[in-house]
C-alpha cells in the first residue's frame, strides 16, 4: 500500500463520530443533524422519470467521454449561466462529464501533479510539488494532494479578508513550486464568493508561475440574492479575452443545484489541452457515467425552474434561522451555499460536544475542516451549520442552539 495513506487525517465525520461516542443525548429531543452537507429537498420528479424511462439503457456500456448530447447541454448551460459568448464552450474539447465532483477533484489532482521532478525548470530538480488550497477546506483537496505526492499549502480564509483566500500572502517560493491552485467559490464552509478580479489575480499568478487553477463551483447555484449569481472562473477568463480558458478548469455538480447527491453527476470544463490529458487518465480510471444518469442529467441541466424553487427554500431557511441566532452567535452573512460559519463562545469542539449532549443537535466543529498554520487555525472557535433539513427542523435546531448558548452564560 502507498505509504502516503498513513499521512491522511481522519475524515471530518469520523472525527465527529468519535467526538459523540459515549454521549447519550436527551431522549425526549429528536436528533437534528446540521453536520453533513447533504441536500434534503425533494429531487425533481422529471429527473426521476428520466431515469425510469431510460432504465433499459443499463444494458449498454457508457463511454468515458459521455454522449455528445450531454456535453452540448452542459456547454449551453455554462454559456447561459456565466454569460459566455455563444459557442465559446466546445462540447468536444472543453467539457467532460464526471461521476460527482468529489471523485473528479481527487482524480484531477492525481492526473496533473508531476511528482517525479520540478516540471518547470531543470535548475530545480526533485523539488516536491505544492498544491495551494483554502483553509478551511473540503478535505478532498488535502487528501488528493498528499496521495498525488504533493505538499498541501494552506491559505487561511479569515474574517479580515472576507473569508476569501489572500493570494498576496503566499510567498514566492511557494508559487514557484505550486503546480495546482485549488479554489472554492462559493466557499465551503464560509459561503464567501470570489470576485472576478480576485479570480483574475489567480489566473495572472498561474501565468507567471506556470500552474493550473481548479475552481470548485459546486455551490454556485445556491445563492441568496436571486439577481446576483456568483461569478465563475470561466467568466473571469472571458473578461480577460481568454477564450481558450488556458490553465483554468471548473467543477460543477447536480448534487446541490438539483438536490441529486445520489445521482453522482457533474462535469469538468475549461482548458482543452488539460482536459485532453485528463480524459486519457479517465479512460483507465473506470469512471464512465451510465446512460440513464446521463439522460437524467441532461434533463436537470436544461431546466432552471426547479433551481429557482430550491433557492427560495434556502432563502426562507436562512431568514428564519439567522433571525433566531443573530443576537447569540456571530457569523458572516453568506453570499451563497447552505452553510453558516458561526463563531462560538467556547472552543468549537467543546461547543459541538456540549450541544449534542444537551440538545441532541449535531454540528461540525471548525477544526475538523481546517488545519493549524503559522498564522493560526481559522476553524478554531467556529462551527459549520448545514441548513439542509426542512425549515421546521432548522428553526427547531436554531432554538435549541440559542438555548444552549444561553446556558453557557449562567
Explain how this protein is built.
It is built from 14 helices and 12 strands. With 410 residues, it is of the alpha/beta class. The protein has 2 domains: 3-42 and 306-408, Aspartate Aminotransferase, domain 1, CATH 3.90.1150.10; 59-302, Type I PLP-dependent aspartate aminotransferase-like (Major domain) (Aspartate Aminotransferase, domain 2). A 7-stranded mixed beta sheet has the order 2-8-7-6-5-3-4, with helices on both faces. Strand 6 (212-216), helix 8 (233-239) and strand 7 (248-253) form a beta-alpha-beta unit. The protein is globular.
Protein traits:
410 residues; alpha/beta; Aspartate Aminotransferase, domain 1; Aspartate Aminotransferase, domain 2; 7-stranded mixed sheet; 3-stranded antiparallel sheet; 14 helices; 13% strand
What's the CATH superfamily of the largest domain, by name? Type I PLP-dependent aspartate aminotransferase-like (Major domain)
Class from secondary-structure proportions = alpha/beta
Strand content: 5-15%
* Number of alpha- plus pi-helical segments: 14
How many domains, as an integer? Answer: 2
Weakly predicted, low-confidence segments: none
Question: How many angstroms does the end-to-end distance come to?
Answer: 52 Å
Describe the largest sheet: 7 strands, mixed
Q: What is the fold named in CATH at topology level of the largest domain?
A: Aspartate Aminotransferase, domain 2
User: Helix amount, in percent?
Assistant: 25-40%
Order of strands, widest sheet: 2-8-7-6-5-3-4
Order of helices and strands: HEHHEHEHEHEHEHEHEHHHEHEEEH
What does the overall shape look like?
globular
Q: Briefly, what CATH class of the largest domain? A: Alpha Beta
Q: What integer value in Å does the Rg equal?
A: 21 Å
Amino acid at each position: 500500500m502507498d505509504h502516503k495513506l498513513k499521512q491522511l487525517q481522519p475524515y471530518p465525520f469520523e472525527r465527529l463520530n468519535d467526538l459523540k461516542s459515549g454521549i447519550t443525548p436527551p431522549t425526549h429531543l429528536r436528533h437534528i443533524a446540521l453536520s453533513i452537507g447533504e441536500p434534503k429537498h425533494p429531487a425533481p420528479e422529471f429527473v426521476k422519470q428520466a431515469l425510469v424511462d431510460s432504465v433499459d439503457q443499463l444494458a449498454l456500456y457508457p463511454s468515458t467521454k459521455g454522449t455528445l448530447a450531454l456535453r452540448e447541454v452542459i456547454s449551453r448551460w455554462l454559456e447561459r449561466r456565466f454569460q459566455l459568448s455563444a459557442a465559446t464552450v466546445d462540447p468536444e474539447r472543453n467539457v467532460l462529464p464526471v461521476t460527482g465532483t468529489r471523485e473528479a477533484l481527487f482524480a484531477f489532482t492525481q492526473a496533473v501533479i508531476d511528482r517525479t521532478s520540478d516540471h518547470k525548470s531543470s535548475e530545480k530538480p526533485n523539488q516536491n510539488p505544492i498544491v495551494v488550497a483554502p483553509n478551511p477546506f473540503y478535505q478532498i483537496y488535502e487528501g488528493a494532494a498528499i496521495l498525488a505526492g504533493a505538499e498541501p499549502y494552506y491559505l487561511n480564509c479569515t474574517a479580515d479578508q472576507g473569508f476569501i483566500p489572500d493570494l498576496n500572502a503566499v510567498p514566492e517560493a511557494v508559487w514557484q513550486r505550486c503546480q495546482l491552485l485549488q479554489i472554492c467559490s462559493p466557499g465551503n464552509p464560509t459561503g464567501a464568493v470570489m470576485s472576478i478580479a480576485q479570480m483574475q489575480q489567480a489566473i495572472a499568478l498561474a501565468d507567471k508561475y506556470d500552474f493550473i487553477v481548479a475552481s470548485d463551483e459546486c455551490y454556485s447555484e445556491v445563492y441568496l440574492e436571486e439577481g446576483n449569481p456568483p461569478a465563475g472562473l470561466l467568466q473571469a477568463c472571458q473578461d480577460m479575452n481568454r477564450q481558450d480558458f488556458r490553465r483554468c478548469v471548473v467543477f460543477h455538480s447536480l448534487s446541490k443545484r438539483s438536490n441529486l447527491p445520489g445521482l453522482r453527476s457533474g462535469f469538468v470544463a475549461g482548458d482543452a489541452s488539460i482536459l485532453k490529458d485528463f480524459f486519457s487518465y479517465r479512460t483507465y480510471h473506470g469512471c464512465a457515467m451510465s446512460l440513464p444518469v446521463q439522460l437524467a442529467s441532461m434533463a436537470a441541466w436544461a431546466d432552471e425552474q426547479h433551481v429557482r424553487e430550491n433557492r427560495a427554500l434556502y432563502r426562507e431557511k436562512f431568514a428564519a434561522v439567522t433571525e433566531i441566532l443573530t443576537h447569540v452567535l456571530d457569523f458572516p452573512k453568506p453570499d451563497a451555499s447552505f452553510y453558516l460559519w458561526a463563531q462560538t463562545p467556547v472552543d468549537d469542539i467543546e461547543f459541538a460536544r456540549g450541544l449534542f449532549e444537551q440538545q441532541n443537535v449535531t454540528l461540525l466543529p471548525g477544526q475538523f475542516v481546517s488545519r493549524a498554520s503559522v498564522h493560526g487555525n481559522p476553524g478554531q472557535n467556529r462551527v459549520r451549520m448545514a441548513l439542509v433539513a426542512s425549515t421546521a427542523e432548522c428553526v427547531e435546531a436554531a432554538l435549541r442552539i440559542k438555548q444552549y448558548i444561553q446556558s453557557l452564560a449562567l
